[in-house]
Every structure is written in structure tokens, then in C-alpha cells.
UniProtKB/TrEMBL annotation:
<protein>
    <submittedName>
        <fullName>CoA transferase</fullName>
    </submittedName>
</protein>
<dbReference type="GO" id="GO:0016740">
    <property type="term" value="F:transferase activity"/>
</dbReference>
<dbReference type="InterPro" id="IPR044855">
    <property type="entry name" value="CoA-Trfase_III_dom3_sf"/>
</dbReference>
<dbReference type="InterPro" id="IPR050509">
    <property type="entry name" value="CoA-transferase_III"/>
</dbReference>
<keyword id="KW-0808">Transferase</keyword>
<dbReference type="Pfam" id="PF02515">
    <property type="entry name" value="CoA_transf_3"/>
</dbReference>
<dbReference type="InterPro" id="IPR003673">
    <property type="entry name" value="CoA-Trfase_fam_III"/>
</dbReference>
<dbReference type="InterPro" id="IPR023606">
    <property type="entry name" value="CoA-Trfase_III_dom_1_sf"/>
</dbReference>
Length: 402
């Protein structure tokens, strides 16, 4: 699919070279592409980005790939060869942004150190995502998202008390790093425009992106020596907020506001708790959280999830069912908000995919093109650099492009 109104998008005219693979770098590129940036994805010759083969495949390609690589063009280059590196440098000489998530030192080994690239293109903004950052004693250690989640403090908390720490269920460390990368790019572009036109290097470490979201974890330790512990489905120190059993599943109820708590207790027939002076504020409720959770569970246990959600809605108490993929796909609110889109793939089938976030009122993002086949745009992009068809054929013969 294509969109002739790309110029109306907020990042129209921005050229991004994505040299990352798998999750963190490519998610960053996807987000920029959804809002109009021209994203040229440089993939390795051979099999390309490993994400093409991850999880469930349809027509030989991951359906995850169809989401992660929409609004991108694919160029297949062998960056281990000098001629491939030279082509990459030519691309970067005309680019606004470079995204890379290789191990530190990889770009330098390819003759593409930031100072080299910015000498040729002073306006270039370079985002570098790695496990531990570009400096420090752990710099050269391999680091995937799960390691960032562990070192950032998240994995210690994602467990039932006394049980093994579990992963969130998605690659949240990579995604948080990507979103921090997007923020960094947009700030660097703003600075470039407002203060002289120079680019800069953005250093995002996976563990730091996770750590940045860990709320009061460190201040609590510093002030009180408290090491926050896993709380399972509850929100430790804030009550009541938990998952409660129903006759046909689980429901989440957040009654932790002072007035909300009173409405919640009235709705479940516990006016005694609603009127208790010591439960009027959070510290008192935390002291009696087991009793409060038990009262809520006694009420929810004999009711269906839908009945509880309806009752909580009428009482103006935040509550919700635990959604599965099927629940999301069938939910009218998701559809009304255009969070489920039908996307045509280049393999000839249509696929339901997540919509675009965030939602801008005047220049909303959109899916302008579907995910490319490996190297599908190589010839076109190289021709834009002034490389002739004969030269491209010779490069292909030597395995430098694909």
C-alpha cells in the first residue's frame, strides 16, 4: 500500500538509515516511519534481519516482521566488505538520522565511527542502542533486552512473592530502549534546528531505559534501606489495587483513590469499611490491605468478570478484565480508536496489525507501505546515490549487495 499524502505527516522529509536488527533499533525506526520519516533499512545479505524468521511464519515470513518493518525500504548490503561500507557511508552522508543497535565498537570496526560520519555529514543524528551503553566497565558485554530488564531492576519485581522472577511476556526492555531512542532523536533534531544545525550522538543503554521507569525504587532504598520486593498482581504500598477471582476468570480493580475506595466498598456492600476512619487514606488501607483484598475477593468470587466490570463502571471504580489476543481482536473500543488495522502484505494476504501510537490531531501517523522483501529496494536506493545499473550488477555479482 502507498500514501500520496506523506507530505502531511510530521516527519515527512526526514531520512533515516536503520542499521539495527531484531527489536530495539527496528522498533525505533518503525515509530519514526509511522509518522512520515523515510526509513531505509540496511540488512545483511543472505537472510537479512533475523526477525524475518522469528515466532509464527506465514508464507515463509514472520507476521511480526509485517508490523515491525512497515513504512520501510530494504537495502541488502554486506557491511563486512569495504565496498559495502562505502555504500553505507554514502547513504549516511545524505541522511538525517542513523539508528544502530550493534555491540559497541562494531561501527568503528566498519570505518563508520560517529566522528567519521559526522565529519562527512555534520547534521547527522546518531542513535546508538546497546546493552550497557558506549562507556563503562560492562560496555563490551553482550546485552539483550532480558539482561537490561534484570539489571534495570524490573525482573526482581515481576514475580509472585517467593517465586521465580518471570518475564513480562513481551520484549519490554527492547521496546523501552526504542522509545527512549525516539525521544532522544526528536530532541536532537529540535536542537539541530534551533541551535546551529549540528547533529549529535544519542547513547541509549537497555538497562538504563528500564531503570528510568522504576519509579521510587532507589529513593526508597537510599532513604529507608528498603529493597522493594515482588508483589505479584498487587501494587505494594498502594491499596487496594489487585487481581481478584471471578466465577469465570480474573478481574483487575484499582480502588486506591480515597473517594474511589469509598465507592468501591459501597458497591460491594461493605459500608463499614467505607466509613472506617483509618481507611480514609492510603496509609491506613495499606495496613489492612489483606482484609480489604479479602472483602473484595469474597464479592467478586461469586460473579462473572463482565458483571464485576459493569458494577464497577456504574460505581465509577476503575476495573477491567485481563485481555487475551482474542479479546483485543473482538473489542469495539480498539476498533473505534483505529488500534486494529488491516494491512496488505507483499506476500499477497491481508493481516490485522496494531494501529499507530500516539494519536496526533492534525498530523496522525499512518501505514504508508507494507514490510519489504529482503533487498527489494536495493537497486532503487543505490541508483539514487548515482550508482549505475552496471555497477550495481557488478556489486551483486561479488555478493556486496543483494
Amino acid at each position: 500500500m502507498s500514501d500520496n499524502n506523506a507530505a502531511l505527516l510530521p516527519l515527512a522529509g526526514l531520512r533515516v538509515i536503520e542499521m539495527g536488527q531484531l527489536i530495539a533499533g527496528p522498533f525505533c525506526g518503525k515509530t519514526l516511519g509511522d509518522f512520515g520519516a523515510e526509513v531505509i533499512k540496511v540488512e545483511a545479505t543472505g537472510s537479512g534481519d533475523p526477525l524475518r524468521g522469528w515466532r509464527l511464519l506465514k508464507e515463509g515470513t514472520s507476521v511480526w516482521w509485517q508490523v515491525q518493518s512497515r513504512n520501510k525500504r530494504s537495502v541488502a548490503l554486506d557491511l563486512r566488505q569495504a565496498e559495502g561500507q562505502e555504500i553505507a557511508r554514502k547513504l549516511l552522508a545524505e541522511a538525517d538520522v542513523l539508528i544502530e543497535n550493534f555491540r559497541p565498537g562494531t561501527l568503528e570496526a566498519w570505518g563508520m565511527a560517529p566522528e567519521t560520519l559526522q565529519a562527512a555529514n555534520p547534521r547527522l543524528v546518531i542513535l546508538r542502542i546497546s546493552g550497557y551503553g558506549q562507556s563503562g566497565p560492562y560496555r563490551d558485554l553482550p546485552g539483550f533486552g532480558l539482561i537490561g530488564e534484570a539489571m534495570g531492576g524490573l525482573r526482581h519485581l515481576t514475580a509472585e512473592p517467593g517465586r521465580v522472577p518471570v518475564r513480562v511476556g513481551v520484549s519490554i526492555g527492547d521496546t523501552l530502549a526504542a522509545l527512549h531512542g525516539v525521544i532522544g532523536i526528536l530532541m536532537a533534531l529540535y536542537h539541530r534546528k534551533a541551535h546551529g544545525g549540528a547533529g549529535q550522538v544519542i547513547d541509549v543503554a537497555l538497562y538504563e531505559a528500564v531503570f528510568n521507569c522504576m519509579e521510587s525504587l532507589i529513593p526508597e532504598y537510599d532513604a529507608f534501606g528498603v529493597v522493594r520486593q515482588p508483589g505479584g498482581s498487587a501494587l505494594p504500598g498502594i491499596a487496594p489495587s489487585n487481581a481478584y477471582p471471578c466465577s469465570d476468570g480474573w478481574v483487575l480493580v484499582a480502588g486506591n483513590g480515597d473517594s474511589i475506595f469509598k465507592r468501591l466498598m459501597a458497591a460491594i456492600g461493605r459500608q463499614d469499611l467505607a466509613d472506617a476512619p483509618d481507611l480514609a487514606s492510603n496509609p491506613g488501607r495499606v495496613a489492612r490491605v489483606a482484609e480489604i483484598d479479602g472483602a473484595i475477593a469474597d464479592w467478586t468470587r461469586t460473579r462473572s468478570v463482565d458483571a464485576v466490570v459493569q458494577a464497577m463502571g456504574e460505581a465509577r471504580v476503575p476495573a477491567g478484565k485481563v485481555y487475551t489476543a482474542r479479546d483485543i481482536a473482538e473489542d469495539p473500543h480498539y476498533r473505534a480508536r483505529e488500534m486494529l488495522l488491516q494491512q496488505a502484505t507483499r506476500d499477497g494476504y491481508s493481516l490485522q496489525v496494531p494501529g499507530v501510537v500516539p494519536k496526533l490531531s492534525a498530523t496522525p501517523g499512518r501505514v504508508r507501505s507494507s514490510a519489504p522483501h529482503l533487498g527489494e529496494d536495493t537497486d532503487r536506493v543505490l541508483a539514487e546515490l548515482g550508482i549505475t545499473p552496471g555497477q550495481i550488477a557488478a556489486l551483486r555479482e561479488r555478493g556486496i549487495v543483494q
